[in-house]
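Duplicate of earlier report; 3-hydroxyacyl-CoA dehydrogenase input re-posted below.
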Amino acid sequence: MSEKLVQDKVIIVTGAGGGIGRDFALALAKEGAKVVVNDIGASVTGEGNDAGPAQKVVDEIKAAGGQAVANTDSVADASAAAKIVQSALDTFGRIDGVINNAGILRDRMFHKMSLDEWDAVLKVHLYGSYYMSRAAANHFKEQESGAFVHMTSTSGLIGNNGQANYAAAKLGMMGLSKSIALDMQRYNVRSNCIAPFAWSRMIGSIPTDTPEQQARVAKIQQMTPAKIAPLAVALMSDKAKDTNGQVFVVRNNEIFLMSQPRPVRSVQRSEGWTPETVIEHALPAFKGSYFGLDKSGDVFSWDPV
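Output:
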């Protein structure tokens, strides 16, 4: 029998008590990984604390013959994030991978968004991904191996209404991932992003007041979290050693490699620019290449296969 894809690798999955994270943890364990199942057991908006969800996933893994340990520390605090990494070291003696999946939502139209709603989402998604990655980085450097997967979103890569906090955090995570990939490639450490389309409680608040909305939600519900897991497991494997600094989207049975910003057009004037010549020359020259105010649904406008 061939060796499993991530045999004996110790991998932390944050936000793994349910949804996408749970499927990651189960799929990793099935492929031989020892999994730290991290989840504070909070609501979608971040309130509360319940050890039950993480332990339940651990119990599922152990019942299937795998190895796992539960952890309920918060990624939004630097010292707590360090404890999550320490949990892997204390239990399994090493750490080989981190999947930054923990997240909350505080959706609000921008002009109504409160400081708390902004801060809470940035703390969990962007700061949490930094805290977790930083806590693992020196261990990866010393052993000259390791892999990160950060969960981004088309809300950040493309755009969505009412999610300035979430979109800023998720696009920031793309920049964080690329920087980690550049800084740590010499130590054989890889860092990639996945933007998932999947039905979970994180998007369970989508309205279903009209037939059109109900049809949209029905399509999203077909996109189960288990569809995301194969790519995440593959990216944790040594067999993906040539994949670094990339951004992927998974939508049901489709996997997309996303573009990264590059120059589209340029204009120049030998004498330099004034505000007037920018108005008269530069902006009209660029206008034909402007990007529309697209939302994620405008770009991914066809039904998933």
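The chain has a mean pLDDT of 92.

Merging into the original ticket.
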